[in-house]
Amino acid sequence: MPGENLSRDEARERAALLSVDGYEVSLDVRSAIGGHDGDGPRTFRSVTTVRFRCNEPGAASFADLIAPGVTAVSLNGRDLDPSEVFDGSRITLEDLAADNELVVDAQCAYSRTGEGLHRFVDPEDGEVYLYTQYEPADSRRVFANFEQPDLKAPFRFEVRAPEEWTVWSGGAGERVDGVWRFAETKPVSTYITCVVAGPYHYVTDSYERVLADGTRLEIPLGALCRKGLAPYFDADDVFLITKQGLDFFHDHFDYPYPFGKYDQAFVPEYNLGAMENPGLVTFREEYIFRGKVTRASYEGRANTILHEMAHMWFGDLVTMEWWDDLWLKESFADFMGTFANVGATRFKDAWITFANRRKAWAYRADQLPSTHPVTADIRDLEDAKLNFDGITYAKGASVLKQLVAYVGQDAFLEGARRYFKRHAYGNTRLGDLLSVLAETSGRDMAAWARSWLQTAGVNALTPQVLLTTDGRIDELAVVQEAAESHPELRPHRVAVGLYRRGEGGALERYARAEADVDGPRTVVAELAGQQAPELVLVNDDDLTYCKIRFDATSLATLRAGLGDLTDPLARALCWSALWNMTRDALLPARDFIGLVLRFAGRESEIGVLQMLHAWADSALTHYAAPEWRRTGGRLLAEGALRELRAAAPGGEPQLAWARFLAAVAAEEADLALLRELLAGTEKIDGLDVDQELRWAFLEPLAAHGAADEAVLAAELARDDTASGKRHQVRCLAARPSAAVKAQAWAQVVESDALSNALVEATIAGFARPSQRALVAPYAEKYFAVIERVWSERSIQIGMDVVRGLFPAFQDSPETLAATDAWLAAHEGAAPALRRLVLEARDDLARTLRGQECDGS
Q1: Which of 183, 546, 578, 852 is 20 to 30 A off residue 571, Cα-Cα?
Q2: Across-strand partners of 263?
Q3: Which of 4, 127, 269, 308 is the catalytic position?
Q4: pTM > 0.85: yes or no
């Protein structure tokens, strides 16, 4: 990674000097198939022609390229010696003219880490598939360029590929004389160009719309995946969501989709959820479901489709100038994904999922020592890579939800429309968006931005209720608190809901008031005189971003009857608040687990139920006192089996409880049941043990020594696919053997032979909470190797290793001390590496506080 880390200052200096007129990129990927000669990486030829201007003739600059070799470099007709001008990541450009042409002929390496041009060989049929992934700065692994978002330009791609392949790029393409040639793109940033090539299964459709001016807009649609996934590919549903989204954004943005066609490629071994390349969006292929999944999975896929579609305007049409303002695309896309899901598709309850799942990600990130304002201080590309986080996405989206409540939806959308028209194909900063919102809302956006975008941390809101002698509210106030490290008290537009039991015992809202909470204590005068509530829910309807706390009466009500809350969003908010209390060591883990066991079976929202399963498992693994873990695990397994048998046959809750049982199974009786379900000697009415569920059952069996290598090999023979291989690798690494752990460690740490997907699978199998003693020796090894791994491997693999192998299950003060010792001894380590270790250290300290709370 050293030498590849472009700084913000370097980017600003280059942007002030240069402007780019266009790229012509020619790739030859015929080398992707067949044998490979030599000991070095498998490579492809990349020839790039860049035309650009320099406003200071005679000045020097550089182009970006990461490649094993450069054959030729020409600048304005002068041949340059590659050995003198290319250092492995940059090409020095001296004595620039006013108008320049740079031609670079390079041998670039295929990727096995999902960065650059990724090459995947399908174990099922031996077919080879290629795709590119660049964000934030990996297009330089594929062609020479100026790798920063504010040097936009049109691109023309041509690709030579094996005869039997199809090739896609951002523009429309056709094969002429054996070469795929693509139409010139609009001016876009380097990181959102894209090439996908291989024998992909391809389905087409089209979208049509009459625009406000009477013209007809026609957008060719395509969807593609590996041939092995074609039998599972529900392209009709992908196209349905796509068309609904295009309608929604055209209705609200008043700016026609600007990039021609709209292809969506589901690709293997993908590091992200998806990427918004205009005209050719890429997704992880796990969004094609090989087995039965719940509605929550389809909702999640729809949200991702709409998130990426929103980027066509927020991010692609108008792009942030530098990664400091990454929120200008990611926060908006995250908000718009849910906004459009609710407004345009069958997933009308998507805000519940947002409140329960997405915000949990934000709350965690915002309490880490690495938390940062939504508008971050991004010094370089390593910083940028790590800032694709819960702050930039989910907190930013939550803040925008608060902004809509603050300025009103009409003013917000009118601001967006003006923003697109004013800055189309350009680059922006924070102030550019705030100025249009100030115009449309008449509000002071600078003050709002200072509080919400330029400070870090999450506030906690707690109700205080004073009653009259006759049992009515004398005064209801909201108390706002902030962490000592981030003391900002923000203005919140909140709804406060009052709940009481009605006939039949249901907890229902009987009064609600909206208020502007500002400062340490705000009285909500509108609620004075109301009957005494059994539950006060601050931030009812989830208008703002905060941690909800409860007064004593409300908490007692939830302990006794959380499942009696009839409103699903109110329930989701209460569950989220209780989970935050557990993480903050204010609620013992066993109490949270007890609430899940009592009330999760009554949860009507399948996405919330699945989140509760994940939280309960995490509570047991991290926050339960060690001496209570086995008891807690037994209780969870008993509860999961009870709910599994009670669930309606064939329904989504039944599937969710089956998967949860597999996650918590540890006792012999539970493992025996899983074996019998796999063998077919035991059946649960309506439960289809399909291939994906088989692997879910096999993982705990492998981890507890009840499924050996032969059993896993037999299962792979049954499912000899790329997905099956990932499952098998994870299960193999999960076996409780010192030799197995040593092999897994060596494969990940000492070798780069595994692809990114298999590195991820191996790490997931290696680190098992039930095997704390077995992996204890690797804590010391971890701290000895991480700096070397960070320096030698790609940033993606470095992140996977540093995060995934941190000894989190060695949850003791000794491990905390070892982490502190490493940090003290490595003050000069890469800031991004130190950030990852600091985050892991904070999680470990939180774990110890939670265990102390639970044990007391």
Answers
A1: 852
A2: 222, 280
A3: 308
A4: yes
